[in-house]
């Protein structure tokens, strides 16, 4: 059973999400919160599996709440936002969210995303991730990192990371690099372990921050 906490300052949104999620045999909404501070408290009390987190809320916003929830290892966070080009959403990814969805995501995709995050996968549309990163890096708001952090990677691992950052799926990376999909998964696991990253989203952000790939490049 995937135990979920819903966080949104709009009651109508929470009601809709609860209806969708509670209709599933393997998902249970255990609590709701209307701001970030309340979300952190619910997570401390209930230790849910996944938090569906709005990012734009009065008081403590979803970015700060995500940072606290992930930092204390209370739950995985899946951010929901109204706009796909949203600096709040990218900031939440940087704070540790496992992904984000638009609020008008179809119910089937929402349910799939919640299950995927619970299983440890990152959930972000590659095209949306790319546009968010392009915008964020382009504003100069991102703090770029020294690329020496990448020195532990082999040449092949760097190639895989570059293609991850370009938004390619494992299958597409395998085809481009003439590898099996299983080998690509192995490389990704090693990349995450060497760079001490939690998931694919963090790897993509790091690739941009270190200049391994530049906004607008193919």
TrEMBL record:
Domain HTH luxR-type: 146-211
Record PROSITE patterns: HTH_LUXR_1 (PS00622), HTH_LUXR_2 (PS50043), RESPONSE_REGULATORY (PS50110)
Modified residues (4-aspartylphosphate): 54
Keywords attached to this entry: DNA-binding, Phosphoprotein, Transcription, Transcription regulation
Keyword Lipid biosynthesis included in the entry's annotation: no
Name assigned to this protein: Two component transcriptional regulator, LuxR family
Domain Response regulatory: 3-118
Single biological process term from Gene Ontology: regulation of DNA-templated transcription
Organism: Actinopolyspora righensis
Higher taxonomy: Bacteria, Bacillati, Actinomycetota, Actinomycetes, Actinopolysporales
GO molecular function, one term: DNA binding
């Amino acid at each position: 059973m995937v135990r979920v906490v819903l966080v949104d300052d709009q009651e109508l949104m929470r009601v809709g999400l609860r209806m969708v999620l509670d209709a599933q045999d393997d998902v249970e909404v255990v609590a709701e919160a209307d701001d970030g501070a309340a979300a952190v408290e619910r997570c401390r009390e209930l230790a849910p599996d996944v938090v569906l987190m709005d990012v734009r809320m009065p008081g403590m916003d979803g970015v700060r709440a995500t940072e606290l929830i992930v930092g204390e290892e209370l739950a995985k966070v899946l951010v929901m936002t109204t706009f796909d080009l949203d600096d709040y959403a990218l900031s939440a990814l940087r704070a540790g969210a496992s992904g984000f969805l638009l609020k008008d995501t179809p119910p089937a995709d929402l349910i799939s995303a919640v299950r995927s995050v619970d299983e440890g996968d990152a959930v972000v549309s590659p095209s949306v991730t790319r546009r968010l990163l392009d915008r964020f890096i382009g504003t100069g708001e991102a703090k770029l990192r020294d690329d020496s952090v990448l020195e532990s990677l082999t040449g092949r691992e760097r190639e895989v990371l570059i293609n991850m950052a370009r938004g390619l799926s494992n299958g597409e990376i395998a085809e481009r690099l003439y590898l099996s999909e299983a080998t690509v998964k192995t490389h990704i696991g090693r990349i995450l372990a060497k760079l001490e990253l939690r998931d694919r989203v963090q790897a993509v952000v790091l690739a941009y921050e270190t200049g391994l790939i530049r906004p607008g490049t193919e």
